[in-house]
Amino acid sequence: MTARIERPLSPHLQTYRWTLTMALSIVHRATGIALYVGTLLLAWWLIAAASGPAAYANVQAFTGSIIGRLIVFGYTWALMHHMLSGIRHFVWDLGFGFKANEREALTWAALIGGIVLTVLIWIIAYAIGGGR
C-alpha cells in the first residue's frame, strides 16, 4: 500500500506576496458590482425625472444630502476606476504591459487616474453650478 502525499492541488493565497496589481484586480471586480448597485440610483433619478416635479424633488433631496452625495461620489469614483482598470486589462489582452515595471505603471495609472478624474469631475460639476 502506498502512502498518500498531502500537498496542495494549486498555489494558494499564502504562497503569493500581495501586490498592488493583485489588489486592484480585486477592486476592479468590486467596482463592477458597485456599478450595478449605483445604476439603480441612476435609474431612480431618470424615472423620477420622467414622473414629474414631485418625484424628481424627492430624488434631488436624497442626492443633495450628505449620504446621497457620498454615494454619488463613490459611484463616480467606481465608474472612473473601473473604466481605467478596464483599459489596463484591455492593454494586457492585447499582449502588452506584462513586464514588472509596466504592470506597476499601469496599475498606478489606474489608481491615481481614477481618483484624479473623480475629483476633476466634481470640481467641474460644482463650477458649472451642479452642486447648488
Automatic annotation (TrEMBL):
<dbReference type="GO" id="GO:0006099">
    <property type="term" value="P:tricarboxylic acid cycle"/>
</dbReference>
<dbReference type="GO" id="GO:0046872">
    <property type="term" value="F:metal ion binding"/>
</dbReference>
<comment type="function">
    <text>Membrane-anchoring subunit of succinate dehydrogenase (SDH).</text>
</comment>
<dbReference type="InterPro" id="IPR014314">
    <property type="entry name" value="Succ_DH_cytb556"/>
</dbReference>
<dbReference type="GO" id="GO:0009055">
    <property type="term" value="F:electron transfer activity"/>
</dbReference>
<keyword id="KW-0479">Metal-binding</keyword>
<keyword id="KW-0472">Membrane</keyword>
<comment type="similarity">
    <text>Belongs to the cytochrome b560 family.</text>
</comment>
<keyword id="KW-0408">Iron</keyword>
<dbReference type="InterPro" id="IPR034804">
    <property type="entry name" value="SQR/QFR_C/D"/>
</dbReference>
<keyword id="KW-0812">Transmembrane</keyword>
<feature type="transmembrane region" description="Helical">
    <location>
        <begin position="105"/>
        <end position="128"/>
    </location>
</feature>
<feature type="binding site" description="axial binding residue">
    <location>
        <position position="82"/>
    </location>
    <ligand>
        <name>heme</name>
    </ligand>
</feature>
<dbReference type="Pfam" id="PF01127">
    <property type="entry name" value="Sdh_cyt"/>
</dbReference>
<dbReference type="InterPro" id="IPR018495">
    <property type="entry name" value="Succ_DH_cyt_bsu_CS"/>
</dbReference>
<dbReference type="InterPro" id="IPR000701">
    <property type="entry name" value="SuccDH_FuR_B_TM-su"/>
</dbReference>
<comment type="subunit">
    <text>Part of an enzyme complex containing four subunits: a flavoprotein, an iron-sulfur protein, plus two membrane-anchoring proteins, SdhC and SdhD. The complex can form homotrimers.</text>
</comment>
<feature type="transmembrane region" description="Helical">
    <location>
        <begin position="66"/>
        <end position="84"/>
    </location>
</feature>
<feature type="transmembrane region" description="Helical">
    <location>
        <begin position="20"/>
        <end position="46"/>
    </location>
</feature>
<dbReference type="GO" id="GO:0016020">
    <property type="term" value="C:membrane"/>
</dbReference>
<keyword id="KW-1133">Transmembrane helix</keyword>
<protein>
    <recommendedName>
        <fullName>Succinate dehydrogenase cytochrome b556 subunit</fullName>
    </recommendedName>
</protein>
<keyword id="KW-0349">Heme</keyword>
